[in-house]
Write a structure and sequence with these properties.
The chain is of the alpha/beta class and 312 residues long. Helix content is 45%, strand content 16%. The protein is built from 13 helices and ten strands. It has an eight-stranded parallel β-barrel, surrounded by four helices. A two-stranded antiparallel sheet has the order 9-10. The radius of gyration is 21 Å and the shape is globular.
Length: 312
């Protein structure tokens, strides 16, 4: 799996200090599981959590998990070097989630540690940066440029951001509109494959599940392609919403088929179902088909079903 092909619809955090939760995570189905060394681990338990997470990484990746990562402590905490020194010993580490990335120097630090501590014959490690403060938001462009060879995505950490700006979180999430839009825009501008939305903090009741569903739909409309999860019960909803819908994929397949025929006939402008199709629409359709394929949808069967689609 390359960085650009990584499917990260649901990012599920697992407390790195709990052997029980680490073991349970191996039975789950999720695109991306992150063993957490930061917020879920008390200061006195950091060293023990590093050992537990390293041991979990050393086990083979379960087939039901697409990718495993580790959320280290922030560079500013002074704990990141110890975290990275330990987890980089595992040849199975492929992804680091870096919290509280406030400046380009945080990314440079992580890159330098990777270059000096990672064995040359080990698989490459990518980094996903958490954007959590006013400073990080205003420095998004510089952060995204700092280490382009390892940065593979951005994550919005709403709770810390709200604390930093003295915001009050509401169900509408209106107070985060600027920050979320800026993060999605930066991810697209710097060709980062993953842009992951905020956590839905409630998960126990049916109303909480409805709130999660609405948050997922809202995030997808805004351009996010994944969402953070803090409970296994959130994962299936998140991954369903951030997968292409059946009707959407059928439309995209029709566009791809008709577009090929239009090209063969030298037609630059054409329509499908009464709507004009141009280059941006063709690009969107191709992206939907590719993502649907990675989500396990049977694209070949759809191609056969709609093989007679003609450009109008």
């Amino acid at each position: 799996m390359t960085i650009n092909s990584a499917l990260r619809r649901a990012l599920l955090y697992v407390p790195g200090s709990s052997q029980r939760f680490l073991d349970k995570s191996r039975t789950l189905t999720a695109d991306l599981v992150s063993y957490d060394l930061e917020d879920s681990v008390t200061p006195s338990n950091k060293a023990n959590a590093r050992s537990l997470v390293r041991a979990a990484l050393d086990q083979p990746k379960p087939a039901s998990i697409g990718e495993r990562s580790v959320r280290i402590n922030s560079v500013g905490s002074g704990l990141a070097l110890d975290d990275m020194t330990e987890i980089l010993k595992s040849p199975n580490l492929t992804t680091i989630i870096a919290p509280k990335v406030d400046a380009p120097s945080d990314m440079t630090f992580i890159k330098d540690v990777l270059s000096h501590s990672r064995p040359k014959d080990a698989p490459p490690v990518s980094v996903i940066a958490l954007i959590e403060s006013a400073r990080s938001l205003t420095d998004l462009s510089a952060i995204s440029r700092a280490a382009p060879d390892i940065l593979s995505g951005l994550i919005f950490a709403a709770e810390d951001f709200a604390l930093d700006l003295s915001l009050t979180r509401t169900p509408s999430l209106r107070e985060f509109l600027f920050a979320r839009s800026a993060i999605v825009t930066a991810a697209r501008a710097f060709n980062l494959p993953s842009v992951i939305d905020l956590v839905c903090t409630s998960f126990k009741t049916e109303a909480d599940q409805e709130a999660l569903l609405e948050e997922c739909k809202d995030g997808k409309r805004m351009g996010f392609n994944g969402k953070q999860c803090i409970h296994p019960g959130q994962v299936s909803t998140v991954q369903k919403v951030f997968s292409p819908e059946q009707q959407e994929v059928e439309w995209a397949v029709k566009v791809v088929i008709a577009q090929k025929k239009a090209e063969e006939r030298g037609r630059g402008a054409w329509a499908l179902e009464g709507k004009m199709i141009d280059k941006p629409v063709e690009g969107k359709a191709n992206a939907i088909v590719e993502k649907a394929r990675r989500c396990g949808m049977n694209i070949e069967a759809m191609m056969q079903e709609f093989k007679d689609q003609e450009p109008e």
